[in-house]
Amino acid sequence: MKQTAIYPGTFDPITLGHVDVVRRGLKMFDRVIIGVADNPNKAPMFDVETRLALVRETFSEEKNIEAVRFSGLLVDLAHEHQAKAILRGLRAASDFEYEFQMATMNRRLDERIETVFVMAREDYTFVSSRFIREISSMGGDVSELVPAAVIPYLAKK
């Protein structure tokens, strides 16, 4: 049976840090489902359909990576795709507290689903979607921090 992990996030927009986590996740799992969260409370720059399209375009050549839209409980998405793990990236110690709380709550909801943390590559420890949005909105060059598919969308904003 193929081992599947869910990699959830808003991906507003997807960054090369996200791409790195997915690719490293594929070293541990046969398949990674990228769950693009539909959470209007976060007031994203891009609507969920655009974010989903950018993720799909980024991984269009990968057969064992799938992107899906989701809202609701992450464990429900894991059940839907028979995932045994939730994949999460950590950039710095500051990420750990929030991620630890989320992992603990998800384990409380379903103890059969493990959370696996992947440390960000040093090149991406400072990269966040929020920084990408801010730098891009002020005319800064983020082309070395995001997949090529993202650049035209940022330019339009």
From TrEMBL:
Biochemical pathway: Cofactor biosynthesis; coenzyme A biosynthesis; CoA from (R)-pantothenate: step 4/5
GO molecular function, one term: pantetheine-phosphate adenylyltransferase activity
Residues that hold ATP according to the record: T10, F11, H18, G89, L90, R91, E99, Y124, T125, F126, V127, S128, S129, R130
EC number annotated for this UniProt entry: 2.7.7.3
InterPro entries reported for this sequence: Cyt_trans-like, PPAT, Rossmann-like_a/b/a_fold
CDD domains: PPAT
Subcellular location: Cytoplasm
Main location, first listed in the record: cytoplasm
Cofactor(s) essential for the protein: Mg(2+)
Binding-site positions, substrate: T10, K42, L74, R88
Keyword Nucleotide-binding in record: yes
Occurrences of domain Cytidyltransferase-like (ranges): 6-134
Pfam families per UniProt: CTP_transf_like (PF01467)
SUPFAM superfamilies to which the protein is assigned, alphabetical: Nucleotidylyl transferase (SSF52374)
Site-annotated residues for Transition state stabilizer: H18
EC class name: transferase
GO CC field: cytoplasm
Keyword Zinc: no
Entry keyword set: ATP-binding, Coenzyme A biosynthesis, Cytoplasm, Magnesium, Nucleotide-binding, Nucleotidyltransferase, Transferase
BP GO annotations: coenzyme A biosynthetic process
Catalytic activity: (R)-4'-phosphopantetheine + ATP + H(+) = 3'-dephospho-CoA + diphosphate
NCBIfam families per record: coaD_prev_kdtB, cyt_tran_rel
Subunit structure: Homohexamer.
Described function: Reversibly transfers an adenylyl group from ATP to 4'-phosphopantetheine, yielding dephospho-CoA (dPCoA) and pyrophosphate.
Family of the protein in this entry: Belongs to the bacterial CoaD family.
Protein name, UniProt field: Phosphopantetheine adenylyltransferase
The organism of origin for this protein: Mariprofundus aestuarium
Name of the gene: coaD
